[in-house]
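agent> fetching stored inputs for the pyridoxal-5'-phosphate docking request
agent> found them:
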Amino acid sequence: MFNYSPDIFIPQKISPSWSDNVSVDVLRTDLLHPVVSGNKWFKLKYYVEDALSKGFEKMVTFGGAFSNHIVASAFAAKQAGLRITGIIRGEPDMVDNSPTLQQAQEYGMHFHFVARNEYRDKELIKNKFNDFYIVNEGGYGKLGAKGAEEMLTGISHFEIYDYIIHAVGSGTTMAGIINAAHHHQKVIGVSVMKNNYSLESEMKNLINKASYIKKYELLHSYHFGGYAKKTDELINYMNSFYKETAIPTDFVYTGKTAFALKDLINNKVFKPYAKVLFIHTGGLQGNRSLPDGKLIFK
Ligand SMILES: *Cc1c(COP(=O)(O)O)cnc(C)c1O
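agent> prediction call returned; pasting tokens
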């Protein structure tokens, strides 16, 4: 649908001071596009194909004012020649303070704002959009997982890795990664939400039966206060990670995951000489909501 460099499938080795006896490579899907997050693009691919093959002309999806999914959906719909409406949690004046919504609007997205309590009842909203192809919030679903799987299958030798670590929101990406993983590999998902214990069952709904026995673990202690919450410790860590690796991260997803990676290495969770693949899922556009000067990159 759009051309991106195949180089994103060549993992980059990093050697930060804390890597100890573990070897770490980073899959830079953040390099796919400056605004469209790596994993969001992969998750949307098959929904867009499905919408087109079923003859839909319009799509609708859901998200918050800083959502990577919203802006990626706007871009994907534009590429495919589909009209798209974003159901946004909040008020119309949020556009003024949201570079994400402004960008989505530039890509041609129409917005439909709903109050928080109304937003929760997605079925009611969906009824108003019955000739639209519906994409769940965050691209949750089997087609999303199928697309996410291709982040791994695009790597020429991904069987060399012992562990695969990445950020988790809805669990769609993790399901795709587990489906793609080999039996000797362990998939570690870092949940960026607080106490999201329904996540595991939602994620499992998207795993192929044959993958149930694969090794995976969801970590719930690296949320830094909850979804899109941050602390000075997190921001300082993102700066030091950048100094040591030249890789920018975002404060909602990949910064928390990079923090977890260091913590797991410090705690000797990985076996000696393990090969770890950190999937950088992108999301850097979200850093535009931070005040200037907090991050040494942007
Ligand atoms: C949405 C997102 C995730 C989480 O993906 P899920 O499939 O919802 O778990 C991870 N990283 C980034 C940068 C994202 O935008």
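agent> quick read of the result: The chain is about 35% helix and 15% strand.
agent> awaiting further instructions
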